[in-house]
Amino acid sequence: MSALSMQDTLPAIVAAGLVCHFVFNRYEPDSPLSHVGLLVIVPSILTTLLLPSASTFMRAFGCAYLLYYSTIVLSVVVYRLSPWHPLARYPGPVPCRISKFWMAWVSRDGKQHCYYARLHQTYGDVVRIGPNELSMRDVNAVSPLLGANGLPKGPHWDGRMAEQSTIRTLISVRDAAEHSRRRKPWNRAFSSAALKGYEEILGKRVQQFVAMLEQRTEPVDLAELISHFTFDFMSDMAFGGGSEMLRDGDKDNTWHLLESGLPIALVLSHVPWLGKYYVKLPGIGEDLKKFRMFCQQRATLRRSQGSQSKDLFHYLIDEAGLERHSSPPTFAEVASDGVLAIVAGSDTTATTLSCLFWFLLSNPQTYRRLQAEVDRFFPPGEDLLSTVHHPHMSYLDAVMQVHHNETLRLFPPVLSGSQRGTPRDGDGMLVGPYFLPKGTSAFIHFYSIHRDPRNFSPFPEAFWPERWLPADQRASFASSDSKGLDKLPFVHNTNAFVPFSFGPSNCVGKKLAYLEMRTVVCVMMHRLNFSFAEGYEQESWERDLKDYFVSTKGRLQVVLSPRN
Ligand code: HEM
């Protein structure tokens, strides 16, 4: 058989490149073995075909690899920008349509929520933010995407949680049936009866927190201290204790370690297949592993001690044996979900509480009104921790709720929403007015939908808690900078308020979050006065708030003084 000439071989390399693109596009192989096969072994074989007609091995090697890879890249780019791509009808910037590496790059500074918001302003309600991904700002898509008949969790969890190949935490379970099995004990853990049982655990931490604040005479970073409070409380809930940040500070650097892992987790969520390689790098994820190990030990201890009180662990491990005859959660699942409880439950409430205090201190009139309300309903001698009065205090409840809601509207801790995805082997799905072909990911962009004047008007970008009150109370609350308010069209679409997401996979801890935030704010406002520390740059707060799926925050320098 005569050797192949250069002219014969080059088209074969191009053809092989096109086939490789086809295989990636059709089957999305993500195992390292298939990557090696398609991206190393195939071009190596092509190199040997070229050898007889190339003068040196290096020439044959360079030519085969260059042509093979150029064909793949060109074919991918042309296809993704072409009118034949299934998402071609949706507008979006060229780099987004070509590769998710673009979003991985854009999001590295923690400002992806602002980038998405700008894209929506330019391109409209649905934007193609990846080759196979859409961001949505349309209230009509909320229920179809996230609701009972909506889509399961999307592939970004495969990258974020790449190290959890066997046991996944609830939030990252992509199979709908498995998710619903895992969610059962969580739902029970946040029933009204269960919540009542948590008040004592919460009360102790609130007392400790506020007593500690009362001792602080120098300016403090309130955001950091709030984080310590929420972390200790969630550790009590998840594993019956084990964290004493309020007492000792973050001496093991745990909070910092958890936050420092967020930027890379976000990058991996944009390019999930990279996660498989990232976790194999030596030394990677050691801190997180240590934290998980610590939680595992706490879970083992907590299980051996049995139920001291009906905390979250009690329900997650099903100590009452209610799931005995069906499919009780395994210990590994419970330990993993305990980690989730601490991470998901402490970070989000800490961000909301810190943002609330920033808003209150930036709006002194609102601050005074809220404090007056708290004083009115909690006269001297009243048990500040008691929630028994809450149902009868509709006004206080409304006021507390509206402040939290307005904070969550402007700064939802999960700023860019939680991804969903159509299965790769289905027919695609209609999401409201939009068709999502198979293998498409999508999310509702919380930050944009919450600030859309079609949903909240007037002042969609301003902190105006009164918008949540009934019309008669709203008028009496109208502040001086909202003169002529009654003449402005009022829009208040609560269907577009989704900081806890929506549907069967929404935030299961929502009721606990409100209980915790309401209780601690009441006690803080009652017992202390707050003001910005001298020299604190107020604008830095918004600037330093970063979107890494959950948010990280900067410093909130505050001076505290006990009230008599
Ligand atoms: C202001 C406070 C909070 C906010 C804004 C918030 C927001 C969210 C969001 C947006 C999700 C994603 C839901 C989805 O994928 O559609 C979520 C999930 C979750 N949150 Fe929260 N959260 C908060 C507090 C808490 C607390 C206190 C807990 C207590 C343990 C908690 C536990 C969870 C869990 C377990 C999930 C996973 C739910 C699932 O996949 O079924 N969260 N949260």
If you had to describe this structure to a student in words, what would you say it looks like?
It contains 24 helices and 13 strands. It is of the alpha+beta class. The model has no long low-confidence stretch (mean pLDDT 89). It has two domains: 76 residues; 380 residues, Cytochrome P450 (Cytochrome p450), CATH 1.10.630.10. Helix 18 crosses helix 20. The site of protoporphyrin IX containing FE has 26 residues, from helix 9, helix 18 and helix 23.
Q: Summary?
A:
This protein is α+β, with helices and mostly antiparallel strands. The protein has helices at residues 6-27, 32-50, 57-81, 94-98, 101-106, 112-123, 142-146, 156-160, 176-189, 192-215, 222-239, 245-248, 254-260, 262-270, 272-278, 286-305, 312-316, 331-362, 364-377, 394-410, 446-450, 471-477, 510-527, 540-544; strands at residues 126-130, 133-136, 220-221, 420-421, 429-431, 434-436, 441-444, 456-457, 491-492, 528-532, 546-548, 550-552, 557-562. It has two domains: 6-81; 170-477 and 491-562, Cytochrome P450 (Cytochrome p450, Orthogonal Bundle), CATH 1.10.630.10.
How is the secondary structure organized here?
Elements: H1 6-27, H2 32-50, H3 57-81, H4 94-98, H5 101-106, H6 112-123, E1 126-130, E2 133-136, H7 142-146, H8 156-160, H9 176-189, H10 192-215, E3 220-221, H11 222-239, H12 245-248, H13 254-260, H14 262-270, H15 272-278, H16 286-305, H17 312-316, H18 331-362, H19 364-377, H20 394-410, E4 420-421, E5 429-431, E6 434-436, E7 441-444, H21 446-450, E8 456-457, H22 471-477, E9 491-492, H23 510-527, E10 528-532, H24 540-544, E11 546-548, E12 550-552, E13 557-562
Parallel strand pairs: 2-7
Antiparallel strand pairs: 1-2, 3-13, 4-7, 5-6, 8-9, 10-13, 11-12
Helix pairs in contact: 1-2, 1-3, 2-3, 10-11, 10-23, 11-18, 14-15, 16-18, 18-19, 18-20, 18-23, 20-23
The structure holds protoporphyrin IX containing FE.
The site of protoporphyrin IX containing FE (HEM) has 26 residues, from helix 9, helix 18 and helix 23.
InterPro entries: Cyt_P450, Cyt_P450_E_grp-I, Cyt_P450_sf, Cytochrome_P450_monoxygenase
Cofactor: heme
Family: Belongs to the cytochrome P450 family.
